[in-house]
Design a protein that fits this description.
The chain is 35% helix and 11% strand. The chain is α/β, with parallel strands linked by helices. The chain is globular. The N and C termini lie far apart (63 Å). The mean pLDDT is 92. The structure holds S-adenosylmethionine. The site of S-adenosylmethionine has 21 residues, from helix 5.
Length: 391
């Protein structure tokens, strides 16, 4: 007689999913299941169908503890806060140098779920609702913040010009908490946003707060070891109260232009047909391309193969039709990149868990950063701070 306490296989696999607190659809996507397997998941969980051994093993060995836990309080080199955290790409770049996150904020529930499952922390919600006094002391502030115009543009009230924008919340934390340094990340277009006024106002406020802010730099992921053409503006700053009066100029990392990387580096050897785009979608792409060509503007969708040097920038809208980067296939319509391939294009490690649907995963990786770039910026910042014994 079997023990009354022994779980059935269905209960065991349900437990794995429940521990992760994700839906069957999300779990199927995370496991790379076919649509058929996704549909059968419920029957397996309810012991209505026998679970094939290969599937059972895949589920039972799925990691349920966060793979990217931060260093402990005792072992960390410095502390950081992660604002507009998304799925923690920026956090990881600094964590790799020993940073321990003491506060994070992200209001999107799906991104927060990916964050929790990978780092073991649930971020706080809307940053505008958080009292600055409740934010813990920290060494470095990190934020990949949404770009908004300043409604007070032209009034030149300095700090007050930012009120009502998300940048104001960052500025307020800098003012109250005085971290030793910060790193802000944004789209390259921030430079031209609102005729250059947005960036100008941001820099003026940061300087007014008594931070040394070197001229921001646009860095391209392709120069940092991944086959993606992705340019992002990085703004760093250092508290002048901590620097000597004759402080040196900060140097951003240059990266390295090499011909050794190509799209093939991040492609999976075998990809399910569910990523091949439908005839209807492909016809739509071809039709729009023809139209674009006739009007002489742009290329429409973009095709790449394993030998391409890099893809275009993966954006949050990639899930809609994949137009910025489709992969050629022999004798078939092109295919979308898989979420795991997008993760690699952003420098995420293989152990990073993707616990959301494919559509959400595309959004999350598109919104995130290339970790390699951030890791290099973090190194330059830490070298800079350490030469003055600031950390
Ligand atoms: C460009 S993404 C940053 C992604 C992040 N750097 C990463 O590596 O994944 C901006 C994020 O800010 C979040 N966000 C926007 N407004 C917010 C608010 N008021 N409070 C908290 N999060 C917010 C969005 O949900 C989005 O995930």
């Amino acid at each position: 007689m079997s023990s009354p306490y022994k779980l059935t296989q269905g209960q065991e696999i349900t437990n794995v999913r429940k521990t992760l607190d994700i839906t069957r659809k999300e779990f199927s996507d995370a496991l790379g299941f076919s649509i058929e397997e996704e549909k059968t998941m419920k029957l397996w969980e309810n012991d209505k169908e026998v679970i094939p051994k290969i599937i059972y093993n895949k589920i039972i060995t799925f990691p349920t503890t966060p793979p990217l836990l931060p260093p402990t309080k005792e072992s960390c080199r410095f502390t950081q806060i992660d604002l507009f955290a998304g799925i923690g790409g920026i956090r990881q770049g600094f964590q790799r140098h020993g940073g321990r996150t003491v506060f994070s904020s992200e209001w999107d529930k799906f991104a927060a779920k990916t964050y929790r499952i990978n780092y073991g922390e649930t971020p706080e919600g809307d940053i505008t609702q958080i009292d600055v006094k409740d934010i813990p002391e920290h060494d470095i502030l990190l934020a990949g913040f949404p770009c908004q115009p300043f409604s007070q543009a032209g009034l030149k009230k300095g700090f007050e010009d930012a009120r009502g924008t998300l940048f104001f919340n960052i500025a307020e934390i800098l003012r109250y908490k005085r971290p030793k340094a910060f790193m802000l990340e944004n789209v390259k277009q921030l430079r031209g946003h609102d005729k250059g006024n947005t960036l100008k106002t941001i820099l003026a406020i940061l300087e007014e707060l008594n931070y040394y802010v070197p001229t921001p730099e646009v860095l391209n992921a392709y120069h940092f070891g991944v086959p993606q053409n992705r340019e992002r503006i990085i703004i760093v700053g250092f508290d002048k109260n901590c620097l000597p009066t004759d402080f040196k100029e900060f140097q951003y990392p240059n990266g390295n232009i090499t011909n050794e990387i190509c799209v093939g580096d991040i492609l999976d050897a075998q990809v399910s047909d569910r990523f091949t785009i439908s005839d209807k979608l492909y016809e739509g792409h071809l039709g729009r391309r023809k139209l674009h060509k006739e009007k002489g503007n742009g290329f429409g969708f973009c095709l790449f193969n394993a030998n391409s040097k890099h893809t275009n920038t993966i954006s949050a809208r990639y899930y809609k039709d994949g137009s910025e980067a489709l992969i050629e296939q022999e004798g078939k319509n092109p295919r979308m990149l898989t979420p795991r391939e997008c993760a690699r294009l952003q420098g995420f490690p293989e152990e990073f868990i993707i616990p959301v649907s494919n559509a959400q995963a595309y959004k999350q990786f598109g919104n995130s950063v290339c970790i390699n770039v951030i890791e290099a910026v973090a190194k330059s910042m830490l070298d800079y701070l350490e030469q003055y014994n600031i950390l």
